[in-house]
Specification:
With 289 residues, this protein is of the alpha/beta class. It contains ten helices and eleven strands. Bound molecules: nicotinamide-adenine-dinucleotide. Nicotinamide-adenine-dinucleotide (NAD) binds next to helix 10.
Length: 289
C-alpha cells in the first residue's frame, strides 16, 4: 500500500510556485495577488482563510483579507466583489463558503469575474471544465488530479466511483475523471444519498473517491482488493490524545481498509493540503495571463 502524501506533495508544489514567483518578480513582473472575502466569524471558515493567507506569504504572493460582518447585506457583499473585479492589481478572488443564510451563494459566485475566479466555482468555468477547455479547476478536485498524476496512478479504462455529488467536490470530480485526459479516461459512477446498493457499486471500484462528510463511513467490506482510495472527508471530533483536544477524521476507516488498498490518502495530510496548493497555482496562472 502506498500513501498518497498530500502534505509532502503540496510542499513540493509550493516550492515550485515560490521559485516561479521569484523569477517573475526579479525580472520585473507582477507579484501575484490573491484577495479573500470572509463573512462572519465561523471557526472553520476562519481557519481555512487564515491557512490560505499564510500560504500566500510562504510562496511570495501578496494577499488581502476582507472581513465583513455576519449581517452584511447581499448588496454590500456584491459591491465588494465588484470593487475587486475592477481592481487590476488583484489576480484572484475567493469568497469563503458557506455564506450566511440571507445571502444567495450562487448570486455571489456568479458576480465574481470568471478571470479572477481562482476557486473555479463560476458556472462559466465549470462549463469550460466540462468541455475540457483551459480554465481554473476547482481546487480540491484539481488537488486530487495532481496527486494521481504525481504518484503515476493509472486511471485510463478504470472504474472510478465517486461518493457525494457536491458542486465543489463530487460532481466536478466525476466530470474530470471521465474526461479524455491524463489523469482521466475512467468509466465513472457518481453515487449520492439516494443511491441504492452503494456497497455493491463501491466493491467494483478501481478508484474510489469519497466526499460525503460522514466520518469513517467506508469500511473494508465495501471495497475490493487493490483499490486506490481518495478520502476527501474532514470531520472534527473531540480527542483527549491531541493537545488541541480535537482530531480530524476522514470519510474512510483508514485502519480497517489500508491493507486492501494499492494507494490511499490519509486524513489529515492527504487531500486537504493539496487544496490550498491548487488555489495558489490557479492564482499564479491568473497573474501570468
Ligand atoms: P456536501 O456535504 O455538500 O454533500 C455531501 C454529499 O454526500 C451529498 O451529495 C450527498 O448526496 C452525499 N451523501 C450523503 N450521505 C450519503 C450516503 N449515505 N451515501 C452516498 N452519498 C451520500 O459535500 P462536500 O462539500 O463535498 O463535503 C464532503 C466532505 O468533504 C466533508 O467532510 C467536507 O468537510 C470535506 N471537504 C474537504 C475538502 C478538502 O480540502 N479536503 C474540501 C471540501 C470538502
Amino acid at each position: 500500500m502506498i500513501i498518497l502524501d498530500g502534505k509532502k506533495t503540496s510542499h513540493d508544489i509550493k516550492e515550485e510556485i515560490a521559485v516561479e514567483v521569484n523569477s517573475i518578480v526579479s525580472s520585473g513582473g507582477k507579484t501575484p495577488h490573491l484577495s479573500a472575502i470572509l463573512v462572519g466569524s465561523d471557526g472553520a471558515s476562519e481557519t481555512y482563510v487564515n491557512a490560505k493567507v499564510k500560504a500566500c506569504a510562504k510562496v511570495g504572493f501578496q494577499s488581502t483579507l476582507i472581513r465583513l460582518s455576519e449581517d452584511v447585506s447581499e448588496e454590500d457583499l456584491l459591491a465588494e466583489v465588484k470593487k475587486i473585479n475592477d481592481n487590476s492589481d488583484i489576480d484572484g478572488l475567493i469568497v469563503q463558503l458557506p455564506l450566511p443564510k440571507h445571502i444567495n451563494e450562487m448570486k455571489v459566485t456568479e458576480a465574481i469575474d470568471p478571470k479572477k475566479d481562482v476557486d473555479g466555482f463560476h458556472p462559466s468555468n465549470i462549463g469550460r471544465m466540462a468541455l475540457n477547455l483551459p480554465t481554473y479547476l476547482p481546487a480540491t478536485p484539481a488537488g486530487i488530479l495532481e496527486l494521481l498524476k504525481r504518484y503515476d496512478v493509472e486511471t485510463s479504462g478504470k472504474h472510478c466511483v465517486v461518493i457525494g455529488r457536491s458542486h465543489i467536490v463530487g460532481s466536478p470530480m466525476s466530470i474530470l475523471m471521465s474526461r479524455n485526459n491524463i489523469p482521466g479516461n475512467c468509466t465513472v459512477t457518481l453515487t449520492h444519498s439516494r443511491t441504492q446498493n452503494l456497497k455493491g457499486i463501491t466493491k467494483t471500484a478501481d478508484i474510489l473517491i469519497v466526499a460525503l462528510g460522514k466520518a469513517e463511513f467506508v469500511t473494508s467490506d465495501m471495497i475490493k482488493e487493490g483499490v486506490c482510495i481518495i478520502d476527501v472527508g474532514i470531520t472534527r471530533v473531540r480527542s483527549d490524545k491531541n493537545k488541541s483536544g480535537w482530531k480530524l477524521l476522514g470519510d474512510v476507516n483508514f485502519e480497517d481498509v489500508k491493507e486492501k488498498c494499492s494507494f490511499i490518502t490519509p486524513v489529515p495530510g492527504g487531500v486537504g493540503p493539496m487544496t490550498i496548493a491548487m488555489l495558489l497555482q490557479n492564482t499564479l496562472i491568473s497573474t501570468k495571463k
